[in-house]
Amino acid sequence: SLAHxxxxxxxxxxxxxxxxxxxxxxxxxxxxxxxxxxGNVVTATLMPAMAGVAEVALASSGGCLRRGGxxxxxxxxxGLALIDGLGGSAVTPRRAGTALFPVDDAVxxxxxxxxxxxxxxxxxxxxxGRDGQGQLGNGLPMTDRSTVETAVGLP
Length: 155
Known about the structure:
By secondary structure, the protein is mainly beta. It is built from no helices and 12 strands.
């Protein structure tokens, strides 16, 4: 898989499940390369924290990875409880979803400005994060969500 995030960086997944990224690594968490990689990474650099990755999705200051059916996210992603209900930024990937609503059957992922979504093998799409313009698709008033929300209206 190959992902480009809002003109800041690019990541690619190798056939062996390793993730390589290049571009703007900002506060050491934008691309998950750590502070040692520097701010502007001009060559493909291995993301050390994850292996066995099937897919990568990038947003403006972070992104998500799919390994098996699990979703792992890192970066700023809004600084709210947008990754796992705990909040803050993540330099290394943290498992997305919450203890009450884990996501363990993802077949595809997407990351946007301060949100993430996953298509599930069991059917439907779930999202978590900012909802200022209804981008979670949950049919509720436009309010940020620190819980996993199911998008409604899909056939």
